[in-house]
Design a protein that fits this description.
alpha/beta; TIM Barrel; five-stranded antiparallel sheet; 19% strand; chitin binding; chitin degradation; Glyco_hydro18_cat
Length: 289
């Protein structure tokens, strides 16, 4: 899909035209993410600001013709913020009633963050949770590791997607409302022999390579069927952890077995064309079986 510059409305304008051409598409606007999450604590802290936010997002959704919004607050950092998060969702639902609009939330795939939110109550407001089952390791880690592994493998304490799903479901949140996140990028660890080993710096842009640039030139791709992860070793990226079509198909099978809502991808523009497309692999695995 071509994305125009500012003069053409940018990404938002492109998606608005796409919605007009294909009215059956379900499109939502994601608000927040990363540094853009810094305003959520203040917005969610009072009834007045929550209501104002709800009115604002209703205006945005109606102006664009989209189907709803995604709240990407990364992340409520204590129980009070967790309660305010639920209050914010409740305020949004007043202005975006569930019989007409979609409301989703992107949440980290870790108990350290999820424990601050009453997920059982959250199901009353949310259509879906986008469970960000990636960035388990990166430039902030003391040792290298798979950044989107589904299982811990021989490192039982390692963060993994399945453990996050187990925790969310254990709270009473419906499995059918969980989308498992797939990264469309890899994380690089220079001078590392692989997961659990020391490294010296990171390659790529801020330690990452877009998936369409992987595996790196001159390297061989390896799939670990124990953790459900792919990687390549050597070249300018050192050891790079990522997903490939084979691991995405395995994750899709996992979603079917656990009766999850499906997969989501961050971000689509970094996907590879043709037979190496992650999005295509996941779609076929979810729908062709």
């Amino acid at each position: 899909m071509p994305v125009d510059g500012a003069a053409g409305g940018g990404c938002l304008g492109s998606f608005m035209r796409l919605k007009q051409q294909h009215p059956h598409l379900q499109l939502i606007i994601s608000i927040g993410g990363g540094a853009a999450s810094q305003h959520f604590p203040q917005v969610a802290a009072s009834a007045a600001t929550r209501d104002h936010f709800g009115k604002s997002v209703r205006g945005l959704v109606d102006a664009t013709g989209f189907n709803g919004i995604d709240i990407d607050w990364e992340h409520p950092s204590d129980p009070e913020q967790g309660r305010n998060f639920l209050a914010l969702l409740a305020a949004i639902r007043i202005h975006l009633p569930d019989e007409r609009y979609l409301l989703t939330a992107a949440l980290p795939a870790g108990r350290w963050a999820l424990q601050n939110i009453d997920l059982y109550k959250a199901q009353d407001y949310l259509d879906l949770i986008n469970l960000m089952a990636y960035d388990f390791h990166g430039s902030w880690s003391q040792k290298s590791g798979h950044h989107a592994q589904l299982y811990p493998g021989n490192m039982p304490d390692a963060a993994n997607g399945s453990a996050a799903v187990d925790y969310v479901v254990s709270t009473g949140f419906p499995a059918s409302k969980i989308l498992l996140g797939v990264p469309v990028y890899g994380r690089s660890f220079l001078n590392s022999r692989g997961p659990g080993h020391p490294y010296q710096g990171c390659g790529g842009e801020e330690g990452t390579f877009e998936y369409k640039l992987l595996p790196r030139p001159g390297t061989q791709e390896v799939v670990d069927t124990t953790t459900i992860s792919a990687s390549c070793y050597g070249g300018d990226g050192g050891w790079v952890s990522y997903d490939n079509p084979q691991t995405v198909r395995m994750k899709a099978d996992y979603c079917r077995q656990r009766r999850l809502g499906g997969l989501f991808y961050w971000t689509g523009t970094a996907d590879a064309p043709g037979p190496r497309s992650l999005i295509s692999a996941g779609f076929k695995a979810l729908h062709d079986a």
